[in-house]
Amino acid sequence: MLQAEPTQTAVHPHSSVTLHQLAHARAGDKGERLNVALFAYDPDHYTTLLEQVTEERVLALFAHRGASRVRRYPLPNLAGMNFVIDDVLQGGVNGALNLDGHGKTLSFLLLSMEVDAS
Question: Is 10 domain-assigned?
Answer without folding.
Answer: no
